[in-house]
Each structure stands twice: as structure tokens, then as C-alpha cells.
Design brief:
Chain A is an all-alpha fold. Chain B contains nine helices and ten strands. In chain B, α3 packs across α4 and α3 runs parallel beside α5. The chains are: A mainly alpha, B alpha/beta.
Chain lengths: ~575, ~250
């Protein structure tokens, strides 16, 4: 068993070695800043709940915990499914493993641990401050943290097992299709699941007490369990009970929901193991079947891409066309576009159902605030997408880098080609999100202009950082792009990008607030306010330009100096 | 036209010296064989000549340009075929050639025209519009060779030219290499296949433990080694099985 983990562990060890403590100090520091920020926000929200109305506050805290676990579990489930398909059917090292005399039972265990680790570490990292905030606000003892470890472990095991099981089963159920078709199916299922979950949770009702006949009905509605047959509810309920969110600790409930989690983890693992042993060999064989004609090889497609890349110099154009063509022919890459569709759908859906009218005469305050915070949200969406699609670009170039390095192309040209291939679609998407959500919110023209300009700057900086950091810390040995995103460069990028987004919004907050206040009070936006906004935008543009060029330059230097 | 000039080239990986002062000159139009046992420093030398590695010391001039000082001009004049050419699996053969042609700033019409000829010469026509992921090792090798010749380089550097090629393709490769030098192009060939070196190369160098231990035509090596009837393989084995110890150059 240990032998099978050796290549990955050795790779990790090698990745950690150069630079020693200095190499990890920056991301650790940035990670701590992120954790602290999220922790403080959660503590403030939970304290607010409990101080305004203790009874309602506890119900809201329990509801929020269930909702957060539901979102966390959905993320985990999708991540596990995608990772399972890539690790079990598309990973580059698979032929060697399958040719070796390794029993299927052992291969399953290794793949289960691999998928669980790769699919869950980001989700766990992001959720830690939330869980700790609950513990602190509700004055939890060690029992809560012990229960948390068990609950999280069970949730990860359940989602991973189900991910492996579904991936293996689907490849067998659809013999005529290859893995890429499977991935698109998986993505469609995920979109459907998200829509169903959103409808089931109905988050908009939390803030619409007037829709209910009485206050009691409202409380009863909030207290109703949300999707009680999902492990997320079992985990949230068990932890809520340990925390005493439901007024007292009900050990029978803790035992029941805790048992459900543990039994669920064991049963799902056994089931996944059985399916894996029975169906993996035929599934793997089918996933290697003959190639199909692809629409990206049609003439109209090639002409369209060539037309779009026309403004660039010949060499950069050639690299952009190559990047776009290879992206759309790699199922592991393009199928993730469905994730993008899911993001857009959920994003805009949330804006559509926001109860802005319920806020009465102050609805415009909420509207302006949301439109402003929307800038940061779009920044985070661009960050997530750049981490998935742009950051691994240089690493995926690894085996073919000899060709670029021996041809008369500078490293700078290679990186700028990667920048433009990533920037153009992402900035278009980001601006689309901003414009559509602002239209749904019916915000002022001023705020729309500020949003559009800021998102443009941020998108350029974020894509530049993804390319630059991906080039500074490439992983040429990574079997697929998800492992590059999950590596050192991915972590560093996500934290730096989050800080840039937060810093930009912070810089703009004061001048934007001043201009809104002037407008709300009927004074009109004067020269001072205009100057403040212009200054804020110049500052954001300047910081973004520095982030973009500094990371691109660093990436270019480091990749150029790399002797491989 | 200029050839290749290596002057006192050294390279160390950390404290471990891989190249210990290599000097040699390859004349324009020459088909030069670079031989040596595994780990002798052949690939390191080639990587430095093609700009994939930086030397620790010394100088490399390719087609009259220093590869460290003026890499852009040097690379424009070099075509390189590695021993294991990793290509873009998701491009078709023709798309790959178009891509490489544009990297060398060739116009689409030039790429089309030159590709047509080379594709025919390497027998790639039937499958040139298939994805590279469907190609065998030999076909990849032929496609890599085609792409390296597309910009009509002055210098062609090839690491193991016949690995994975079927007998017919090997024969065509030999003819092609001879034709290239006849047209004035310089070929630098690193190989383990000593028959190819013996049959094709105007001169050969044998590198052992980071040093050139023999340099000249095959006949010169025979004379120097006092093995008039020996094959290149026998000379090679004789030199590299202890005879060519470091610091005691045998024939150079």
C-alpha cells in the first residue's frame, strides 16, 4: 500500500524542498490573513444572530450551519466526481498501474485516498474558520472539535466513495461514449442538482417573514429540516446538537445523526469498493475506445478561432490557436465549462430572487451595497475560473516545452499568449456577470461604470497572476491540471488574488460611499466625489497593473532560468 | 554559412561536473556524429546547443551566433529533433506543422508548400489530419523531423534519429540526412547506432565522462587507435571500456 503512494509522496516532498521555510512562509501568512478575515466575519454574524433575538438567533444559526454544510457537501460531491473521473480514467500514470500486478482492492484504496485528498483539501481549508467560529461563539468544548473531525471525515468519505462509484458505473453504463462524454453528463447532473438544492433550501424565505401568516409560522418554517436525507444535514444537526444550538445538548440526536454519518461512510465505501472491483476493468477498457470526429476539427471552427486571434502577431497568434484547440479537445478541460454555466446560473438566480422590495423604503441602500459587493464576488468567480483554466497552462506545456524553448520564441511571448487566451474569455464573462446582475439590481449608471472598470482591471491582474505564478512554480510532472491547481502555485495564487480583490474593494469603498451618501441625501455627486472615485479607480488600476506585470515578469524570469 | 563551434564547454549539476571542457568545430555542410555511452554528456551537450540548458562555462556558437548571447538568432537557424519528441496530442499533424511554421514566422502559404513536400517524403500523408494522440512513436518521430525541417534550418541537431522507425523509414532517414548535407545544411547527430554513424558521418566525436576522447573521421580513429581492421563499434568499445579515462585523452 505504502509503495503505491510513494510516487505522489515523493513528488510532494520534492516540491516542498527548494526554498525551505521561506517558500512556504508567504502562502502560510496569506492563508492566515484569509482565515482570520473569514473567522471574524462569521463570529460577527453569529453574535448578531444571538444578540438580536436569542431564540430566532439560534434557529438562524442552526439553519445557516445546515445551509453551509449543504453548499460545502455539494462542492465536495462535484469536486469528488470530477476528480474521480480524472484520477481513475484519465490520469497519465494509470497504464503503468494497471499493467502492474496490483490487486484491484489495493488500487481502489489508493485511488479512494487520492481522490479524497485532492477533492477535499480546498473545501476543508475554506471551511475551517466557519467551523471554529461556531465553536467559539457557542463556547464549545473539545467534544465539538472531536465530533467535527469525525463528521468532516465521514462527509469526505461518503462523497468520495459516491464519486468513485458513480464515475465507474457511468463509464460502464454508457459504453459507446468515451470519458469526455461522461464528464459532460456529470456536469449536467451537477447543474440539475444545484438548481434542485436551491429550490429546496429557498434561502430567500429567510428574510421574508411577511410571507408567513404569523411569527410562529415563520419560526416553524425556519426550524423545518432542510433535506434531512443528506449527510450534510446529519453533520450539521449532530454538530448543532453538540454545540447546544437547539437550546440544550440532546445526546440521543447526536448519537442518531452521528451513527448515520459513520454508517453512511462505511456503507458507501463498501459499495464503491464492490462496484470498483466488478466494473473498473471493463470501464477502463471502454474509456480507451476509438476516437470520434470532433467539431473542433471542422473548417468553420478553425476559421473562427483564426479570425479571433487575428489582431495578435503571428507567433502569439499561433500559440493562442494551439491553446484554444487543445483546450476544446481535452475533455478534462472543456467539460469544466459546465461548471462555468452552473456558476452563471446560480449567480444570476440569486440576484433574481433577492427580496429587495421587502426592505421597504431602504431597498435602494441594499441594492447599492449589493451592487458594490458584487465587484468582489465577480473577482472571486474570476479567481476560481483562472485557477482551474489558466494557472495550469504552463505546467501542462511541460512535456512539449522543448519545442517552444528551442524555437525563436521568447518566454515572454509564450506567457503573453497564455495571458490573452485566458484574459479575453474571462473578462467577457466577468463583464457579462456584472452587467446582468447590475441590470437585475437596477443600479445607478455611476455604480455600473465603476463595476465594469474595476472588474476589467481585476480580471487582467488575476489572469496575469495565474499565468505568472503558474510559470514561476510549474509542475511539469503533474498528471493532470487539477493537481496543479491543488498545488503550491494554486494556493499562492488563490490567496494573492483574494487579497487583491479585497484590497481593491476596500480602496473603492470610501469614495463610493461618499458619492452614494451625497446622492441619497439629495446633494448630488459633486467634483469632490467624482475626484475620489477617479482616484480610487486609478489606484485599483495601478495596483492591478503592478500585480499583472510583476507576476508575469517573475514568471518569465523563473521559467527562463529553469533548466528543464 | 557557419557551422557549430563549442569552446571549452562545461556544465555542472550542483557539484557534479557533467561536461568537463568540450571543444569541437563542425564545418558547414558536415554530417557530424556525436557518440558516447549512456550518461557521457551527449544529451546535456545537445540541450545546451539548442538553448534548453545554460552552460556553466565556455561558449557555444551555432550558425555564427552565440546561443547564450543571441539565442533568438541562433534558434532561428536551428532545427532540433529530440529522441523522445513529446508533441501536442490534441492537434492534428497538419495543425502541428502549421503551429511550428508560425513559431518560425513562416507565412501560411510557405508552411503549406513546404509541409506538402515533407509530408510526402516522410510518408505521413494518409494520417496527417488525424490527432497526434493516435500516432505511433515512429510517426511522432517523423512528424518531429518534418517540423524541424520546415523552416529550412542551417543546422539540424538530431538526438537518436532512427529510434522507433521501421526499416523503410530508417532507410529514408539516412537518404534524407545525406541529401541535407549535400544541400549545404549541417547535421549534428547524436546516436547509439554506430552503423549509422559509420555509414553516414563525415566525422565523429566520442564523448566519455564529460570529455571528448576521440575526434575525426572513422578512418582517422582506426589509424590513431591502431586498429586498422576494426569497426567503429570495436573502436568505441575499446575507448569507453576504461581506455578513455578522465584526464587522459586517448585520441584528442
Amino acid at each position: 500500500m505504502t509503495t503505491l503512494f510513494y510516487p505522489r509522496l515523493a513528488g510532494l516532498k520534492r516540491e516542498q524542498r527548494p526554498g525551505g521555510i521561506h517558500r512556504i512562509s508567504v502562502p502560510v501568512f496569506l492563508g492566515l490573513v484569509f482565515w482570520t478575515g473569514l473567522y471574524l466575519i462569521m463570529v460577527r454574524v453569529l453574535n448578531h444572530f444571538t444578540t438580536v433575538d436569542p431564540d430566532l438567533g439560534r434557529i438562524l444559526a442552526a439553519k445557516l450551519l445546515a445551509l453551509l454544510f449543504l453548499l460545502w457537501l455539494s462542492f465536495l460531491a462535484f469536486s469528488a466526481l470530477i476528480t474521480a473521473v480524472s484520477q481513475i480514467f484519465l490520469a497519465r500514470d494509470l497504464p503503468m498501474w494497471i499493467a502492474a500486478p496490483i490487486p484491484l482492492r489495493r488500487l481502489f484504496r489508493v485511488k479512494l485516498v487520492e481522490v479524497a485528498t485532492l477533492a477535499s483539501w480546498t473545501a476543508i481549508f475554506l471551511a475551517i474558520p466557519v467551523w471554529v467560529a461556531y465553536g467559539v461563539v457557542f463556547d464549545a468544548g473539545l467534544g465539538y472539535y472531536a465530533a467535527l473531525v469525525v463528521a468532516v471525515g465521514c462527509c469526505v468519505t461518503i462523497t468520495t466513495s459516491i464519486g468513485v462509484l458513480v464515475a465507474v458505473a457511468l463509464v460502464n453504463l454508457f459504453p459507446a461514449r468515451r470519458a469526455r462524454d461522461l464528464l459532460s453528463l456529470v456536469a449536467l447532473m451537477f447543474i440539475a442538482a444545484i438548481v434542485i438544492l436551491l429550490r429546496a433550501v429557498r434561502p430567500e424565505e429567510f428574510v421574508r417573514p411577511e410571507d408567513f401568516g404569523t411569527w410562529a409560522e415563520y419560526l416553524v418554517s425556519l426550524s423545518n429540516p432542510t433535506l434531512p436525507w443528506l449527510p450534510s444535514y446529519w453533520a450539521a444537526r449532530a454538530l448543532g446538537e453538540v454545540l447546544g444550538v437547539y437550546n440544550a445538548v440532546h445526546w440521543d440526536a447526536v448519537t442518531m445523526y452521528g451513527s448515520l454519518l459513520v454508517v453512511g461512510a462505511i456503507v458507501s465505501t463498501i459499495a464503491a469498493g464492490g462496484v470498483f472491483r466488478e466494473m473498473f476493468r471493463t470501464g477502463y477498457s471502454k474509456s480507451q475506445e476509438a476516437r470520434q470526429v470532433q467539431w473542433t476539427r471542422q473548417l468553420w471552427w478553425r476559421r473562427a478561432v483564426q479570425f479571433l486571434a487575428r489582431p495578435f502577431p503571428r507567433r502569439v497568434r499561433a500559440m493562442i490557436i494551439k491553446d484554444v484547440s487543445t483546450f476544446f479537445r481535452d475533455p478534462g478541460q472543456w467539460s469544466q465549462l459546465f461548471l462555468l454555466l452552473a456558476v452563471i446560473a446560480i449567480y444570476l438566480y440569486n440576484f433574481r430572487v433577492l427580496p429587495l422590495d421587502a426592505a421597504g423604503g431602504t431597498g435602494y441602500l441594499l441594492r447599492d451595497l449589493l451592487a458594490f459587493l458584487n465587484i468582489a464576488l465577480v473577482g472571486f468567480v474570476v479567481t476560481a475560473l483562472a485557477a482551474r483554466f489558466v494557472l495550469p497552462g504552463v505546467s501542462l506545456e511541460g512535456p512539449t516545452l522543448w519545442l517552444l524553448k528551442t524555437s525563436p520564441v521568447t518566454i515572454g511571448e509564450i506567457l503573453w499568449a497564455k495571458f490573452w487566451s485566458g484574459f479575453l474569455p474571462l473578462v467577457a464573462l466577468a463583464e457579462l456577470l456584472v452587467v446582468l446582475s447590475n441590470a437585475l439590481l437596477q443600479t445607478t449608471l455611476l455604480l455600473s461604470v465603476i463595476s465594469v472598470a474595476t472588474v476589467f482591471f481585476l480580471s487582467a491582474a488575476i489572469v496575469g497572476m495565474a499565468v505568472g505564478l503558474g510559470a514561476s512554480h510549474p509542475r511539469f510532472d503533474a498528471p493532470d491540471s487539477s493537481q496543479v491547481t491543488a498545488g503550491y502555485a494554486g494556493f499562492l495564487f488563490m490567496v494573492m488574488s483574494a487579497l487583491l480583490v479585497l484590497a481593491s474593494v476596500t480602496v473603492l469603498a470610501w469614495p463610493v460611499y461618499n458619492s452614494f451618501r451625497a446622492s441619497w441625501l439629495g446633494w448630488g455627486v459633486g467634483a469632490g466625489e467624482w475626484g475620489g472615485i477617479a482616484g480610487g479607480l486609478v489606484a485599483v488600476g495601478g495596483v492591478s497593473a503592478i500585480a499583472l506585470f510583476a507576476t508575469m515578469q517573475a514568471g518569465s524570469s523563473r521559467l527562463g532560468a529553469r533548466e528543464r | 554559412m557557419s557551422g557549430i563551434v563549442l569552446t571549452d564547454l562545461t556544465k555542472s549539476y550542483g557539484a557534479f561536473p557533467v561536461l568537463r571542457g568540450i571543444s569541437l568545430t563542425v564545418e558547414p555542410g558536415e554530417l557530424f556524429g556525436f557518440l558516447g555511452p549512456n550518461g557521457a554528456g551527449k544529451t546535456t551537450t545537445i540541450k545546451i546547443m539548442t538553448g534548453l540548458l545554460l552552460p556553466s562555462g565556455g561558449r557555444v556558437e551555432v550558425a555564427g551566433y552565440d546561443v547564450v548571447e543571441d539565442p533568438y538568432e541562433a534558434k532561428r537557424r536551428v532545427g532540433f529533433v529530440p529522441d523522445r519528441p513529446f508533441l501536442y496530442d490534441k492537434l492534428t499533424g497538419s495543425e502541428f506543422l502549421e503551429f511550428v511554421g508560425h513559431l518560425y514566422n513562416l507565412s501560411p502559404a510557405t508552411v503549406r508548400e513546404r509541409s506538402r513536400d515533407l509530408i510526402e517524403r516522410f510518408d505521413l500523408g494518409e494520417r496527417i489530419d488525424e490527432l497526434i494522440e493516435a500516432y505511433s512513436h515512429g510517426m511522432r518521430q517523423k512528424l518531429a523531423m518534418t517540423s524541424a525541417l520546415l523552416h529550412e534550418p542551417e543546422i539540424i541537431i538530431i538526438d537518436e534519429p532512427t529510434v522507433g522507425l521501421d526499416p523503410r523509414s530508417q532507410s529514408r532517414m539516412k537518404t534524407l540526412l545525406s541529401n541535407l548535407t549535400a544541400k549545404g545544411q549541417t547535421v549534428f547527430l547524436s546516436t547509439h547506432t554506430l552503423e549509422i554513424a559509420e555509414a553516414l558521418c563525415t566525422r565523429v566525436a566520442i564523448i566519455h565522462r564529460g570529455q571528448i576522447i576521440a575526434l575525426g573521421t572513422v578512418d582517422e580513429l582506426r589509424r590513431e587507435a591502431r586498429r586498422e581492421e576494426s569497426s567503429l563499434e570495436e573502436i568505441f568499445l575499446g575507448l569507453t571500456e576504461g581506455g578513455g579515462s578522465i584526464g587522459e585523452p586517448t585520441l584528442v
